Amino acid sequence: MDGLRLLPSVDLFLKSDPGKELIARHGRQMVAEALRTRLDQARAAIRQGADPQRITEALAADLADDLAAGAQSNLRPLLNLTGTVLHTNLGRAILAEEAIRAAQAAMASALALEFDLGGGARGQRDDHLRGLLCDLTGAEDATVVNNNAAAVLIALNTFANGRDAVVSRGELIEIGGAFRMPDIMARAGAKLVEIGTTNRTHPRDYENAITADTGLLMKVHTSNYRIEGFTAEVPAADLAKIAARAAVPLLNDLGSGSLVDLAHFGLRREPTVAEAVAEGADLITFSGDKLLGGPQAGFIIGRRDLIEAINRNPLKRALRLDKIRIAALEATLRLYRDPDRLTERLPTLRHLSRKRPEIMEQAQRLTPKVAALLSPLGFTTRAADCESQVGSGALPTDTLPSAGLHLTGEGGDAPDRISARLRALPCPVVGHIADGALILDLRCLDRDGDLLDALAAL
Ligand SMILES: *Cc1c(COP(=O)(O)O)cnc(C)c1O
Fold it and tell me: N or C terminus: fewer CB in 10 A for the chain?
């Protein structure tokens, strides 16, 4: 077919100006591969009767699009307008500027990670966090691992490997997918001893379960659900006394674990980590990237002899943190020493504490500008109330009064269509679908311009 002769050869195209430009941006190998694929498609299309002239003229632009699409990372920044502040699938907490700077410096340079600058001797990487954690919580000692799941795993393995771990049936939680307390216990080598019933567990249930084989008593904060009605659980303070009398450690898995009283930020009061320490648990575990607002990490704080035993467990080496996260955690924890400026500096608390009137004002400000971009595509924009969630299993039954943009259009699939368009943007915009609309909750939108810039690419 003559039409096929219009298409350039690979060599010729790579030597052309558009070819050289693409090579400068993407590299010769990538351009050559994408070009071969494009040329195969073009030949097939021409054989099917497509216009060879048009295809040849569009080749450089089409190739540029292919390469640009291939160069886009799925990990590129996006706007979380889902209304879930700590969205596990969207990476949970956004770090404070201070933490970002510390992480960046740690990435770019050598640092005294396990090196005592004073004496020049070997140090421990947890030293950078231990003092801060003890100050902020009142605990005697602290250690840190990859995440809270790892914290629970290593604590169980250290004290209940081949022994009994006693837990209430009301607290045998599953936290999404593969983290189920009974499974973690099994992997830690612990024998699960379930006590009480789903809705009621009493002090005598624990007392009767304690034997010479008991490795530890465990309390799990039922962070992602709530049992209501005819219920009874043993408060941590009472459980601590039972554990002390039997001389077995009490492990309290707090899950989210807040370092500050959330009531100051207009949220429901959750027990703070310091309160859990004061109640007398021997060991307490909590996450770095939930309410605390830092990078992924798991903290274990409590009695010095027990923390030392955990640090001697060979699993510690497998679960330890790298310098980047230690630097970011240290900077995040330092912010807590100045509680007055915490909401300004820590994005998680800033987002959680925003009030509906302020967010509604933002929604009304944005409505005409967003409508101007979306109405040519056939979608209607209006400002409306919505409800946000904390996320990551924290305060599961509470919603936060919020506001956002309701996007609607013709046909039942309109919310899905606009949702797909916004997800495909160079800076994706992720909302949630409810009541026949795509809702963009503006609670986590720090700057109006971020949304307008993202939508400008539509
Ligand atoms: C979230 C949670 C975990 C797991 O924490 P990660 O930091 O996600 O590993 C464990 N226990 C409880 C009670 C939790 O809420």
Answer: N
